[in-house]
Amino acid sequence: MRRVWAAVAAAVLLASCGGGTTSRSSVLGDLADDYIVLAYQRFHRNAVALEDALSALCASPSSGSLSDARNALSAVRNSWSRTQAVWVGPVMERRSWALVRWPVANDEIEQLIADRSIELDYERLSSRIGADQRGVGAVDYLLGAGEAALDALGDSRRCRYLEGVAMVIAEEAALLEADWGQSWEGGDAYREVFADDGRGDLDRVVNDMLFLLERITDLELGNALGAMGREAVPTAIDEGPAGAGVDDLHQRLIGLQTVLIGRADEPAGLSPLLGADLTARLAAQFDAAFDAVGVVSPPLRRAVADSPQTVIKARDAIKAVQITVATEVVSRLGVAIGFSDADGDSSG
User: Fold this and answer.
1) Would you say 335 and 206 are in contact if contact means Cβ atoms under 8 Å apart?
2) How many other CB atoms sit within 10 Å of the CB of residue 292?
3) Do 298 and 243 meet the contact criterion of CB atoms below 8 Å apart?
4) What is the pLDDT of residues 116-170, one digit of tens each?
5) What share of the chain is helix, strand, coil (3-state, %, to 5)?
């Protein structure tokens, strides 16, 4: 309950500023300045650190450098997952997910590495291969789950592939950071565009959060559990050799909570527009969702098979947030439901 009342207090305090009238534009501007811009800066820093870690691994393969590379990959994946609640503007226009994270086809990655007539340079890896052959999923696959990756890295083409894919991720991260904080399409930074109340970004944010919640509860967990009226599809959960499905859930929930109502160490999100009562109930639901996800033992696919009740409880807790957003948040904000820039995106 401590997290609940901290969120309520923040909502009351911020809503009281300016005589109780808080403009949507100012809330979006604060959200951009205090969270979104910083989130893309964090993602960029982590992507550069991954480049460095992979270079060190390829220069001197060892258990230590392999562990460092896997930790750097986890940081990139986590920081990317936290941005997913606000996939509006540059990330959608650029279709960044096709460069950063898409479910990968392991056999196609192996074919590319094996075909020595193909140059594994930046230009090819950024624009001339499929989304299912690059991004954090490709790095995860090539780093593997055990020590076998060290022997495989004796093939210089595997290292070239790893380093090239990491460069693609880092370059995309740099562009997204610049788009939000410096200049977007030769004009103002997207932070300024986002804060323009007349452009519909509030509608886009709420729609995209709903789409993300539906992806988590139905397209991923629902399909993996066989709860969507058809056979269970474990591969609906994309977690790779690192088995990061539970961590992905946690990080995306952090992003959703921060954007909606803020967290103890993060800004207030949209809570100044929602009011104290709705903020408190959402905070309680997020607490329940974090608690339920915390009980699920990774990897997530194995948990679906071995302890489905824990996954069902996590899904139900997240679904409760989804319902509140779809009904009360939408009503309170007067949001038009029915479009999402992320529609059709099958990335994780």
Assistant:
1) yes
2) 20
3) yes
4) 999 999 999 999 999 999 999 999 999 998 888 899 998 999 999 999 999 999 9
5) 70, 0, 30
Q: Say what the alpha-carbon torsion angle 126, 132, 138, 140 is, to the nearest 10 degrees.
A: 140
Of 38-42, 69-73, 87-91, 200-204, the range with the lowest mean pLDDT is 200-204
Handedness of CA 198, 188, 22, 275 (dihedral sign): positive
Buried b or exposed e, range 211-228, using 16+ CB within 10 angstroms: bbbbbbbbbbbbbbbebe
Distances (CA, A) of 50 to 41, 65, 162: 14, 11, 10
Q: What are the extents of the domains in the chain?
A: 2-32+193-333, 35-191
**Whole-number Cα distances in Å, 22 to 18, 121, 194, 274:** 7, 50, 16, 10
The residue assigned the tokens 């329940």 is 288
CATH topology of domain 35-191: A middle domain of Talin 1 (1.20.1420)
Q: How far is CA 182 from the centre of its chain?
A: 22
Rounded Cα distance between 24 and 22, Å, is: 7
Residue percentage of the chain with pLDDT more than 70:
91
Give the largest Cα separation in the chain, rounded.
68
CA-wise closest residue to 200 among 321, 341, 309: 341
Residue 190 phi, psi dihedral angles, 5° rounding? -65, -20
Can you tell me the distance from the alpha carbon of 43 to that of 77, in angstroms, rounded to the nearest whole number?
A: 9
Q: How far apart are CA 60 and CA 65, in angstroms?
A: 7
